[in-house]
Amino acid sequence: MIQADARTVHLTGKFDGLLLFATDVIFLEDALENIFPHLRDGARVVLFGAKTLSNRLGKIWNPVLRMLFNFTFSTTPKPDNEPWRMVAKRVENLDVEEYFMGLMFLASGFVSRGERPSK
């Protein structure tokens, strides 16, 4: 197990997958730039976390949700209604599903750097 800041962790080798579970890493460009080069072509990427509402109820509830997130760490970015945006730039066919009335999301896709390897 590795415990380190994703922006500066020294990784060696290539990995078959990446799980980002309720983490700030999805908002940190320098962390993604540090980690993604270590993923193999075809590596599975899965992320799960909180988001604000993108439906009509968002006008009422999003200010409340943002206020509640002020009680977390000061470095924790406040969620928006598409927090997977930065990861989506690096992942092919990112599939996003929303849960708990749109307050949580589960997204998954594959890293692609060209031709997909044959199985």
Can you describe this structure?
The protein has 119 residues and is of the alpha+beta class. It has one domain: Rossmann fold, CATH 3.40.50. The protein has 3 helices and 4 strands; from the N terminus they run βαβααββ. A 4-stranded mixed beta sheet has the order 1-2-4-3, with no helix packed on it. α1 (29-35) links the parallel β1 and β2. The longest helix has 12 residues, at 58-69. The chain is globular and about 45 Å long. The protein starts with 14 loop residues before the first strand and ends in a 9-residue tail after the last strand. The relative contact order is 0.21.
CATH homologous superfamily heading = Vaccinia Virus protein VP39
Helix content: 10-25%
> Per CATH, what is the topology?
Rossmann fold
Name the beta content range.
25-35%
Going by CATH, the architecture would be 3-Layer(aba) Sandwich
Principal-axis shape: globular
List the uncertain runs.
Answer: 115-119
Q: Report, as a whole number of angstroms, the end-to-end distance.
A: 29 Å
The number of distinct helices, counting runs of at least 4 residues, comes to: 3
Q: Sheet bearing the most strands, described?
A: 4 strands, mixed
SSE succession: EHEHHEE
**Strand segment count:** 4
Q: Kindly provide the name of the CATH class.
A: Alpha Beta
Number of domains: 1
Work out the radius of gyration: 16 Å
Average pLDDT level: 80
Structural class: alpha+beta
